[in-house]
Design a protein that fits this description.
The structure holds two protein chains of two kinds. Chain A is of the alpha/beta class. In chain A, about 35% of the residues lie in helices and about 10% in strands. Chain A has seven helices and five strands, in the order ααβαββαβαβαα. In chain A, helix 2 packs antiparallel against helix 6 and helix 3 crosses helix 6. The chains are: A alpha/beta, B alpha+beta.
Chain lengths: ~200, ~375
């Protein structure tokens, strides 16, 4: 990505660039503002693609235990997860993201693994709650709970809490969006960046 | 000549939005018709009964929140502490008892709201899901103000409750009780006279009274089949003997009757809360001299409480140490699930979703 100039423009050309580090799109908007006519966008395809991908993460509607109730609450009226582009699909074939919400038993582990494998690439995993992260309160003296979902599938974002509040899940999804925006998605496909 | 078809074995779950968690139903189908149903449970077995044997009674309370029925955490705490307090002969101060009843009834409302919302979503009414969660958030706000938690509270302790309710809580609770019956009328306006809902639920999944008796069905499922039994009135605990409320009973035994019973129960819960708040005395909220490492005398006890799902019993054996020798939890959702899967034969696949939803199962309660 080319560096954006940060100096103010010569007189009469506007106030200069509004450069933000939060989102590449903010940079784009800054450029549109000062260009004559304001209609030309300069960007890499990858950046726009990542922006689009990160803003419509479809999650798999799949709950394991108590955290699933908070996940449902996050999707319902007060928190309204659709605002940030995440809503639930019934099948892994249509999902980008699996939110492992709650404790996973050893009996359930192969099924979670298979669900993960059924999601088409690129796919992401959020481990929601202590149980999915490390076994949580079921770590000691327990014969049936998996000690962390990362023992079977790769995890992108861990959300702590027992259970995490819907706001915490929000933060997790926003962190994942940041991560996706920085990904060398096309360059990795083209082999420029090693996978 | 009739067309010959093969039987098909279909797995419903463990990942299915309508199984309310991780239940697997092995259905044998002849076309759309159900020939055989076999629930496969154990996908959420968290072995809390075993874990409690290595923890003190106070630590076990937090396990009861998580490992048992997670939609009604306070009801689990009450069930466990009823056993602990009965065996240890611990007197709970009156204010704490009234507070417990208030919180238990709020928990019943919150739990029934989740059930109604998710069942509505199962049957295709997404509006119901959004409306029910809207009111549930108000209940959770009340929980959060006094217990600090939305879902898992660890609020009841041996000999009382952890903290007194904060200033302004009573007013907020009363305001909710004032407003909530209007919302129940909204839900009924959406469901009760809805022809689609009637076709999906009326006469569907009839659980006869004798089957309900034989299979040990309890709670709203049994009451919808004409069994007028509620632990709150049959074996009153805390202050339930001193409040007036009705036990809604329906004779039809179908999905619609189970819906009617639960909706009426929410109204009765509001009634109980209003009476409790009127009678709430000042005073202590925790019995003095209950040590953190509580040692119960040697012996065994079985106590039962009415959780939102039904008759929740705890059998506790103590060897005189600070942790129990054995805890056995009698889960209401377990017997309700097997009672309902008994009568699922002969219905269509779509009806299985309606019947299963109407049981109000929580897999954490079934598997423990």
């Amino acid at each position: 990505m080319p560096d954006l100039p940060q100096k103010p423009l010569p007189d009469g050309q506007g106030e200069g660039f509004r450069v933000s580090t939060a989102s590449p799109i903010d940079k784009l908007v800054g450029m549109i503002d000062v260009l004559p006519g304001g209609t030309v966008i300069l960007s890499s395809v990858e950046q726009v693609l990542n922006w689009g991908r990160s803003s419509s993460l479809w999650a798999l509607g799949f709950g394991l235990a108590c955290c699933a109730i908070e996940m449902m609450a996050a999707a319902a009226g007060r928190f309204d997860m659709d605002r940030i582009g995440t809503f639930f699909r019934g099948t892994p074939r249509q999902a980008d993201l699996i939110i492992v919400s709650g404790r996973c038993t050893i009996k359930m582990a192969p099924i979670v693994r298979r669900l993960y494998e059924q999601i088409p690439e690129p796919k992401y995993v959020i481990s929601m709650g202590s149980c999915a992260t490390c076994g949580g309160p079921f770590y000691y003296d327990n014969y049936s709970i998996l000690k962390g979902i990362d023992t079977i599938i790769p995890v992108d974002v861990y959300v702590p809490g027992c259970p995490p509040r819907p706001e915490a899940l929000y933060e997790g999804i926003l962190k994942l969006q940041e991560k996706i925006k920085k990904e060398p998605f096309l360059r990795r496909r083209a082999g420029v960046v090693p996978a | 000549m009739a067309l010959r078809t093969e039987e098909l074995i279909l797995n419903l779950g463990p990942q299915h939005p309508s199984t309310h968690g991780v239940l697997r139903m092995i259905l044998t189908l002849d076309g759309e018709n159900i020939l055989e149903v076999e629930p496969d449970i154990g996908y959420l077995h968290s072995s809390v009964e075993k874990m409690m044997e290595y923890r003190t009674y106070v630590q076990s309370v937090s396990l009861a929140d998580r490992g048992m029925d997670y939609l009604a955490a306070l009801a689990n705490e009450e069930a466990l502490l009823r056993a602990v307090e009965t065996l240890g002969k611990i007197e709970v101060p009156p204010r704490a008892q009234w507070l417990r009843v208030i919180f238990l009834e709020f928990q019943r409302i919150a739990s029934h709201l989740v059930w109604l919302g998710t069942w509505g979503a199962d049957l295709g009414a997404t509006t119901m899901f959004l409306w029910c969660f809207r009111e549930r958030e108000q209940v959770l706000d009340l929980f959060e103000k006094s217990t600090g938690g939305r879902l898992h509270h660890v609020y009841f302790r041996p000999g009382g409750v952890y903290e007194d309710i904060p200033d302004g809580w009573v007013e907020q609770a009363l305001a909710f009780c004032e407003e909530f019956p209007g919302h129940i009328a909204e839900y009924e306006g959406l469901f009760t006279a809805n022809p689609i809902f009637e076709v999906r639920t009326k006469g569907v999944g009839v659980l006869p009274k004798d089957v309900a008796m034989n299979m040990g069905a309890c709670g709203p499922v049994a009451r919808a089949s004409g069994i007028a039994f509620d632990v709150r009135t049959a074996f009153p605990y805390e202050k339930y003997a001193e409040v007036e409320f009705d036990i809604p009973v329906q004779q039809a035994g179908d999905c619609f009757a189970r819906y009617q019973v639960r909706v009426e129960e929410m109204r009765q819960s509001v009634r109980i809360i209003q009476q409790c708040i009127a009678k709430l005395p000042p005073g202590e909220i925790r019995a003095p001299k209950v040590p953190i490492t509580l040692r119960l005398p040697k012996g065994e006890v079985y106590t039962r409480t009415e959780s939102p799902r039904g008759d929740l019993g705890v059998f506790l054996v103590s060897e005189g140490e600070e942790h129990p020798y054995r805890v056995k939890i009698r889960a209401p959702a377990f017997s309700n699930l097997y009672a309902l899967s008994e009568i699922m034969r002969g219905w269509k696949i779509a009806d299985v979703i309606a019947i299963l939803g109407s049981t109000d199962i929580v897999l954490s309660d079934v598997d423990r």
